[in-house]
Amino acid sequence: MTEQARDRSPEGPPVAGRDYPRTWVEFARRFPDDTACASYVERLRWPGGFVCPACGAKGEPWRQSRGRLTCSTCRHQTTATAGTIFEKTRTPLSVWFAGAWHVTTAKNGLSAMTLASTLGVNYRVAWSMLHRYRVAMVRAERQPLAGTVEVDESLVGGEEHGGKRGRGVEQAIVVIAVEIKDPKGFGRVRMRHVPDATANSLVPFVCDVVASGALVHTDGWGGYNPLANRGYRHERTIFSASPDPAHVAMPGVHRVASLLKRWILGTHQGSVDPAHLQSYLEEFTFRFNRRNSRSRGLVFYRLIQQAVHTGPIQEAEVTHGYRWSDHHNR
Ligand SMILES: [Zn+2]
Predict the structure, then answer these.
(1) Which of 42, 116, 141, 264 is 20 to 30 A from 131, comparing alpha carbons?
(2) How many angstroms is it from 71 CA to the middle of ligand 1?
(3) In sequence order, what E strands does 105-259 have?
(4) Assessment of whether the complete model's pTM goes beyond 0.90
(5) How far apart are CA 112 and CA 51, in angstroms?
(6) Do 11 and 140 meet the contact criterion of CB atoms below 8 Å apart?
(7) Residue ranges of the chain with pLDDT lower than 50?
(8) Is 174 exposed, middle or buried (0-12, 13-18, 19+ CB in 10 A)?
(9) How far does residue 237's CA lie from ligand 1's centre (Å)?
(10) Cβ(282)–Cβ(215) under 8 Å?
(11) How many Å lie between the centroid of ligand 1 and the Cα of residue 39?
(12) What pLDDT was estimated at residue 322?
């Protein structure tokens, strides 16, 4: 495989050029100040050159102070960051970029606390930045899972009782889908925090994230029964006696769930507010699906690329939890 081909993520189009830093030193040289970051944002937003968001005219804008771009046709004023997750931020763009670099290059990511001390910003700023980036991360995961996909629920937070899997409500229920490779290994994952394990919660998740025609492997839980009528080949494996069916029957889901729990316990000290759980799941998914990426710089590039194509996120959503349900079924 050529180097070029390897750099092609299964998510998203091939990278135009190879214009991203490979190392911290390259990063620091490439993005010394806010102006360098803004021009990178501008090129990612308008790869074919500036297009006026008001009138649609193409052509070099007039450039004014503080990064203002004025359309030479209709005189509409904008900036490279208007309409992106960076809009109206009081945090300098260079700090946002450094945050994206650390989030994508740290093997397990970082907590808001660690990010705050790394960037020299307060906790609230780091928290807000992480949450906005997590919303951008989900945009990078649009290609549906395909082939053979295991689906099962896992309980996150709180204790598991004697290895017996409950369908209870005291812990958060996370439904996990994992591509299973032949002859071995796992592909990409998707996850959703669901209110319960009924068909009304499980089936829409599968329909949103798994390509029709895929072979979906579940246990015997009735909540998955409608899948056969939704264009999937549905293989059910029913275990009655085994004390830990997930371990034996769903190796992909079991493995991913244990990595997820370890990440929440390690990086985030086990404390995840259920209102924000989906955001954490999106970050875990983004990183897991790029675990074999040759270049961390490419992962950084993907995050910034999605960030400039993700609309502004309200402060209330950062505080109280992003309304993910509005964004599912896109
Ligand atoms: Zn215009």
Answers:
(1) 42
(2) 5
(3) 148-156, 172-180, 186-194, 215-219, 233-237
(4) no
(5) 35
(6) yes
(7) 1-16, 159-169, 245, 247, 329-330
(8) buried
(9) 59
(10) no
(11) 19
(12) 73
